């Protein structure tokens, strides 16, 4: 659907505003699929890029609400992609709750904490790779549990600039199932609108589940079962039905041809969520 068509529609019935929080696995499919859906409009955050953990999402909401004012020097580590962003901009306050539906994907229980800041893991990896040199790229991107990333982060953090200090002093840990549930639950407590919860695909190329992703799946399904305002959708079954190789470019990214199918499925889940609200 063209932008002009959606504009014409908005003159009458406003399309449902769908605000996405998460990784490329929700943003790109929704953006592609909802472009052809008259009754829905995809919206991403103009300041924050992709986020992965519950801590990342809390940080995003804190910044949107004006509760948190991170130093500009650390924007590159926090997935704040707009260097001109002003934390005191009153127009951003409570921005998220202005939308009709929020789709939230949480894909990691790993937390990288520096003071009050949650460092976005892919931004950290990119900075580490740049500082360490491309010769270390394979080590950085493939080592289990990011052990090599963490070691390299410490080794390339000489200096007193804010990014070097953060790379040297951040804490790395995984949330327990109870801690993750509490952190995810408290995100939902901040949002008054209907929410669609989406975990990471819990499947390897050999067909095995991933324990850390199972923790996320179990907690989000539990949270959705506790509220009529929340719906849960696990993309794992669709990936399994299509075939891992046809759906996944690698363990973290969808194949381009699969993105649209995933977006259409997410749109169907949003409709189901809204229909449930209408029947209440």
Automatic annotation (TrEMBL):
It comes from the Bacteria. This is GSCFA domain-containing protein.
């Amino acid at each position: 659907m063209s932008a002009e068509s959606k504009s014409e529609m908005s003159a009458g019935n406003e399309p449902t505003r769908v605000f996405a929080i998460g990784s490329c696995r929700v943003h790109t499919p929704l953006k592609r699929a909802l472009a052809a859906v008259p009754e829905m409009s995809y919206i991403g955050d103009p300041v924050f890029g992709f986020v992965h953990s519950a801590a990342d999402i809390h940080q995003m909401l804190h910044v949107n609400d004006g509760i948190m004012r991170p130093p500009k020097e650390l924007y590159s580590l926090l997935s704040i992609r707009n260097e001109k962003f002003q934390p005191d901009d009153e127009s951003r306050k409570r921005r998220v709750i202005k939308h009709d539906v929020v789709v939230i994907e949480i894909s990691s229980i790993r937390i990288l904490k520096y003071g009050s800041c949650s460092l976005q893991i892919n931004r950290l990896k990119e900075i580490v790779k740049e500082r360490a040199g491309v010769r270390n790229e394979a080590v950085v991107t493939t080592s289990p549990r990011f052990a090599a990333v963490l070691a390299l982060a410490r080794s390339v953090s000489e200096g007193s600039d804010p990014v070097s200090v953060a790379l040297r002093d951040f804490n790395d840990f995984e949330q327990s199932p109870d801690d993750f549930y509490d952190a995810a639950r408290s995100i939902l407590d901040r949002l008054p609108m209907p929410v669609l919860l989406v975990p990471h695909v819990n499947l390897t190329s050999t067909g095995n589940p991933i324990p850390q992703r199972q923790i996320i799946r179990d907690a989000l399904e539990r949270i959705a079962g506790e509220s009529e305002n929340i719906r849960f959708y696990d993309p794992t079954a669709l990936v399994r039905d299509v075939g891992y190789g046809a759906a996944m470019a690698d363990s973290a990214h969808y194949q381009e041809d699969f993105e649209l199918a995933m977006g259409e499925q997410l749109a169907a889940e949003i409709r189901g969520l809204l229909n449930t609200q209408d029947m209440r």
